[in-house]
Amino acid sequence: MTTAPLESQNTDGEGTIEVSPRMFYVGLGVMIACLAGAFYYFLTSQVEYAIDSPDDWGHTLLVPAIVGWLVYRDRTRLQKMQPFKPAWSGIVLVICGLAFYLTAMPGIGPKWLMIHHNARAVGIGITLIGVVLTMFGWRPMRLLWFPIAYLVVFGTTYTDGILNIITERLQDISARGGFLLLLVMGVDVDLSGNAITIFPSGTDASGAPLQPIPLNVAEACSGMRMLVAFMALGTLMAYVGLKFWWQRILLIGLGVPVAVIVNVLRVATLGVLSLWDPGFSSGQFHTFVGFVWLVPAFMCFLGLMNLVSRLVIEVPEDSKNSVAQGQEGRS
Q: Domain map of the chain by residue range?
């Protein structure tokens, strides 16, 4: 592809910009470098969160690479949208996004906002949308809005205030589901709130009855953050692997009950394993069991994706033409 003029003027008098693929990616790299400098505090904080809690938030380090791949994947479609028509109204979004980000910075904004890591992420998202609109206009936004949204939603560590809204309900479901599943398996258990108590049969070495084993579901649900990574992967699979938006939304929605079922199975697994060793009911073993159950959960998600894709039967163009010709012949 030859290098096109950097600037041109269309018949309507609106400014347009046409660039070569090389200049497009150079400009994109410069823009990313400038934004990385502006949001240095957020980026370093996010990396620290991911390193300190790799089991919960390690996946956030991979999200920028996934977003870059999504943009690269649509490079041909983006090039066909040239010449770009910058939407100067995007500058307003850039100003608003930067102002919101600065307001959420420590020592600048109100205390209830400046301690919120996710508030700064929202400011970054608004700024990114404004930058894309300012540089490339509205047409490329049809392809770029999803990578930006994916970066903000899944590339960020969620604070406990947000997670508690979800996990409190999931703890109730996990406790009841795990309790019922253990009963079906013949385990002697009792449920009090979100705490499951397991009563093992038999005696210890001294002949005394074995002590009850507490299984705190609140602690067992501490690994629910790992399911954020599962939902991030599921959303990516839905966007890339399915054609229609209603299919994508349906698959992402099905990921919620899959996540709930996985956690119920996780609680039941911990309960059964604690009969062999009470130490399995606490500690880092929770995280390990949660990771193990994510593997069959992922396979289940693949099966659901295949099922959803089969809800639409694509008719080849040759068959459509044959049917149309047959109808014309009969008429």
A: 7-157, 162-309
